[in-house]
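Pisatin demethylase
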Amino acid sequence: MSLAASIVILAVFVLLARYVVRLMLDFVSHTRAIPGPLWSRLTNLWYLRQMVKGDFHNTNIKLHRQKVRIAPNYYSLSDPACLKTIYGLGTKYVKSSWYDAWNTEEDLTWTNLFSERDPKKHAANRRKVASMYSMTTLTSYEPFVDSCIGLFRRQLDQAGSSDSAVNLAHWVQCYAFDVIGYITFGERFGFLDNMLDVSNIIKNLDAAISAASYIGLFITLRSLIMKILRIMGLLGTDALADFAERNVKMGGPRKAIYGAETIGSYSPMLNKLLEAKKADPGRFTEWDIMANVISNVGAGSDTTAISLSAVFYFIYSNPKTLQKLRDELEVAGIDDIPRFSDTQKLPYFQAVLKECLRLHPGTGFPMFREVPEGGAVISGQFFPPKSNVGVNSWVIHRDKQIYGADADEFRPERWLHASEAEKALMERSYMPFVCTLLSFCEPSEMEEDRRPKKRARVSVACRQCRDRKTRCNGNHPSCKRCEQLAIPCDYDQPTGGGIARRSDTSGLLSRVKELESQLKSFARSPHASRRASTSADGALDEDSISLETYDRRNSTTLYSPTSNPEGGAAHHPVNTDGVDGMGIITLSDNATFSSYFGPSSNVALVYELTRVLKTLSGAPVNLVNPRAEGVEASNNQQNSLTSSYSLIPRDITVAGAQYLPPEPEATSLLHEYFDTIGLFFPCIYRDTFLAKYRDFRRNDSSHASRSWRALLFVMFAVMYQMRSFASPTDAEDKLSWEYLQRALNLAMPEAVINSDLETVQLLCLLTCYLQCSTNSAQTWSFHVLSVKAAMQIGLHSLETTQNLPLLQRELCKRTWFWCVVNDTLVSVYLGRPPVVPKSLISKNLPEDMSDIFPTSNQSRTVAMTSLAYYNAKIRLAMIISDILAQLYGDNMAANNSMGVFETLRSAFDLSWKLSEWRSSVPAQIRPGSVIAAPEIPRALPMQRFQTGLSLYFHAAQALIYRPVLLRFLQYKPDGTNATETLSLLKDSGFSTIKNCMYTCSGGVALAKTIVDEQFLPTSLWGAWWMTNFLVFNASMMHFGMLLISTQSSFSGLMATEDIDLILSDLKDASEVHRRLNRNNLIISRCRECLHNFLDLYKSFRDTTSPKGIGAWEDLTLSLQQPEFENTHGSQTATSSILPNPGQDFAWFDMEAFAGPMA
């Protein structure tokens, strides 16, 4: 076999392999279901063949549905809803690479208005000549057009007298060229003199347009193809450019003469271009002149000729239409060449023009645009980024759903007799791409020109427009938008009005200023070391606000602008209200607080246990353990575990991108957020947010809203809190609190008054974050604000969001459920009544969008499991809401009058409901399951999902069992119906206590797994405050069971092995606290409370049992271990921390963790 044959075979093989690979990739892509010819999936050659045949527009119509593939990565659409998305003003869909082929020069930096792809450059170039294409300027060229019309009519008269056939399409082309020549250069090219192709320019123009259309499909070969065509003499663009250049050179010296005397003093476009260059040569170059002239001669003449040919064809093919036009002209009294203003008063003539250009628009191909970064959903179909999408006007103009069943027929009356709604739909779908009098603008630019410079304001919008958040023109009895949609239009206020006067709002402004002054004087601090300037009117200046960072573990800072003698504003600490952000424990024995903590709170449980201990021991109970190492016994809370740090005083501008964490740390933190919290609460679309962040980082864009910037800073604050399973280091805590303050400076006080989706998401995230703070009032306040903000924009209403795009509608639903979940959990933690009424909790759970809106750097499996986790958590929150209502009376009163029998029955029913929920959770994330083969690797996100659900599942179980436990502790032998109560407690009640014991043991075991050193590289669960809550709550429940065993009425009820299991769990709980703690006040207080309770219990507990003595000795050794020392180097205690696989809790495979969290 020869070398040449081998090369040919190899080339054919490579080509076939390429097609096979492309076909395989296509069948797994998001666009695989889009119909189209088979060859269109493999190569651009099918599309090229249709172009060469010259009937692609007809083929496109025959193929078309709503979406059709015409080449690899090229899609033709027919949907009026996507027109504004793709071509609208300010769209992110830039022109496709196909437009590069329309440059007359090989250097792609030498572009014209049609070929320029950069929207900013296109807008800048268009502004240079915008005045030359304004309607006023275009109508001023009427004398040029009239002169050509007169000559054209004389040529028709001569042809008619000779009875010779006329190629009207060619004549119209000649007419168009001479009109262009007159308008552009001030003199005709001479086409109309003999109806001949002057300098073969028509032939060259046709070759240039055909070449550009074909080359655009193979743009990477553009330079090579142009060189070949130039050698062959087939590159029409060179001849077109030479023709234009010759006329520019000829027109320059004669710029004061400009043609025949019949034109008078009208100035052609070349004159305006030369004057613009003379006025500003730095801005207006020689190429600007050439580019506009070439575009006029080429694009202007061609589309004008096409449109005029279509008008002649349809008019003279329909005698009835011709007669109606003649009748209209006769009635209007027009017997000569009409003015442009006259034609605007001829409705039937205008309808005929529209109908002609509907059936025969000026372009036969879709005007392709590239899908922006991150991809997009268009007409219900996801298109990956860089996909080429476009609408072929030939196709959409024949859409029967838009233009009626007779859309293929010529019927101008459709534009006159249609209803307002039908006419509006037809107008929105009408895109002839006609370059009337050289105004070859893009649809978005035409829209811009038609838009008034400043819209009229209306004092009152109708209720429907307010709900849809659309513009209302204020017409009565029905506004324009409601008329178009054919829906009722209702106004909440009387029709009279106009714009609200200044005096109408002066009272509100004065009250706002008074509120500002009160806020500034409310917490005046002589210690404020940093100042923030105020504006002249006393309002805070967001770019000059400064802050002071304080130790969150000792005191927390709400947004509290304060005044000072110098007139500035500062932030100062607001002392803790005595209880942490989750209502776990009081932070000082002598803490006084007026906040309400109902029966579901952990504070209430600790108080009840304290009361029982005090009764048993007969001595005061102090929760502080003076012997615990690392904890000072001082009652002065200003002396904390660690001295309060302070930052070097400096001004911090909270709004700028320069105050973000440095790269690549910032991006890494955001990816960590979306790989953790973003999966637990999938309410923010990752790709959109990250794209906006990159733009903000690069441009420090002022377009980013305050709420979005605040949300960004809170994300950083949260992630610095969650970088490992333990509480943050001092450095991490300081950074976290700094970014939180920046967020609050941006968000407040606007978030109290105004609202949008980002504000709700911000407040929800703040609610989650502040659960690790030392101020429960903050957690509750921001949660209430989040619900208020959500209801303010109607997230609770399906009707409000039903008209939004799919992605936004789904994110609104998910964000509302975030509020619902937070409401249930915060109500339980703090013992408060729920804020969200149950009637507003929809049964329609969030839906999977991963197939339509895929997320980069995330598999669809993870996205679907994330949604399964979120929906499972929502359903669990609904069950917890039932628990709160049935067993705790919605925290409405501290004393629950429910009897023992009712309590046991409700606990049983709710346990059954909780068990059903657990069974409904997908197996891979089901809480409390035992994995049969833990050595099988499992993805880290799956283990995190299972961890999260297991935490909440154990907490919900404990919440059910707690009232039963309290019934044991509150039992009085001399009470009413004491015998029946005792019998119930010993029988059904004790089985519930046993279940409670195993539940608490499982919770401690889960916490042990989370803090195990083997999880250091991956951080299985970063929400250390949740781990602390779980283990402390389980410890308190366990301790309550120990107290039950000391009561004479229940002596002997608990076996020795039960006591030993409880003591072993308490030992493990203490070790979990130690490993969680990095000098954190909340965790230290929990560990102190546990140790002190056990010391008191030991003082009166009979420990004669050998097993009991051994257990107590082991526990004493554990309590004497020092607090966490900011390192995790020791592995000596690993064996005591590892969970027991035989227990019913989530087992997590350590070997599946390949490395640090991405």
